[in-house]
From TrEMBL:
Lineage of the organism: Bacteria, Bacillati, Actinomycetota, Actinomycetes, Mycobacteriales
Protein name: GTPase Obg
HAMAP family xref list: GTPase_Obg
EC main group: hydrolase
Cell location: Cytoplasm
Subunit structure: Monomer.
Function: An essential GTPase which binds GTP, GDP and possibly (p)ppGpp with moderate affinity, with high nucleotide exchange rates and a fairly low GTP hydrolysis rate. Plays a role in control of the cell cycle, stress response, ribosome biogenesis and in those bacteria that undergo differentiation, in morphogenesis control.
Source organism (scientific name): Rhodococcus ruber
OCT domain residues: 358-438
Keywords recorded for this protein, A-Z: Cytoplasm, GTP-binding, Hydrolase, Magnesium, Metal-binding, Nucleotide-binding
CDD domains given in the database record: Obg
Residues bound to Mg(2+): S173, T193
Residue ranges of domain OBG-type G in the record: 160-340
Amino acid sequence: MSRFIDRVVLHVSAGKGGNGCSSVHREKFKPLGGPDGGNGGQGGGVIFVVDSNVHTLLDFHFSSHAKAGNGTQGMGGNREGANGEDLILKVPDGTVVLDKKGDVLADMIGEGTRFDAAPGGRGGLGNAALASKARRAPGFALLGEEGIERELVLELKSVADVGLVGFPSAGKSSLVSVLSAAKPKIADYPFTTLVPNLGVVSSGDTTFTVADVPGLIPGASQGRGLGLDFLRHLERCAVLAHVVDCATLDPGRDPISDVDALEAELAAYKPALSGDASLGDLADRPRIVVLNKADIPEGAELAEMVTAEFESRGWPVFTISAVTRAGLKPLTFALAKLVEDYRTAHPAPEPRRQVLRPVARNDDSFKVVKDPDIPDGFIVRGTRPERWVRQTQFTNDEAVGYLADRLARLGVEDALIKAGAQPGASVTIGEVSFDWEPQTPAGVEITMTGRGTDARLDQVERIGASERKHARQVRRGLDTEQE
């Protein structure tokens, strides 16, 4: 049995960018041919695409985590890593994407509409791309960036031409079943229908969809009953049809009061979207009144009594019986005419052009603030400093020196001095904290040392290349001198 799922929480993760490669070209008679490490591949992104063959969010209900492919590491010989594969997620027409705060990120209408939910991480630069006059053969490469992770809410607003509204047990599901081939659950108790039922109706050359929206009672716009969960399915309906129970046994109800109560709820409900994302306020939609259960004598008499009142409001009125199917043909033609008039005035939406409002990735701005958790500590916040820290391999002295030079050129060190930072103060950038040593001459001309080392950094605990070579010779018995 299929399930109608119209709201899900989805955790999306873009792919990580591949690390850059640190490599030196070597061949016969040319042992040091220069750096040739390639860049890492870009991480894959998570992309939503509207597909007309998808009708619910059921797949995301059972699989609430989605992750794109990672980029691969760069290689020697100037070979770049492969880009991670994008993850394409197909969603129904009418899906709205919100963040966890409830802000609308995308309203997806029209076949093929795309939304980049989470861009992949940047690939790290290889040492060939980092070579400069100061560093002719860098002994390090940059790390790839992590992909963006987000928690999103997907809501489906049914794209139906006609929305059937009415009190529980008014006969909405029965009407859908006789107008179309849909087979909704029908019973003689309130709230039998717990999810919207959609049916396709053909009338002459016109084909349109009808949605039965359940659970509308007084107070629905404030969350009473099931109305608040399903009122959003009316936002895209071009025509609203009041299905009225003319044979109700409730002494406190009558067709006119039922319609007035639901009209008050429709007027009170404010769509989350505006402009061309929806069709305006529900109170402004064309109306049609369907007086149901005319097969019962009392129902037929009551329908005849209230018809003039509804017609005085300018609404077409049709008296029908969903059981005997009396009066269905005129109703179907009238609905088709209203739908055709709407389609003539509003052509089918084309796939929307995606509008991106990204934050500048090369923004030079940053700020230095006091660390609230560490006495005399400081926090550096900024797009570029935080990204540079994420790209740095802190086990490599040369990479750390390169980071220090970049931060100095950006003005971070001068800003720390102006902020009153003292030698040894804790400085946090991103997720990394370190003790600030202003005497380290960052940004000055670099004294060339061995690959992977930096003479400005006192890392005596690390074994240098010459020491590793000597130890290897000792192990092989080529050097008997012991240190």
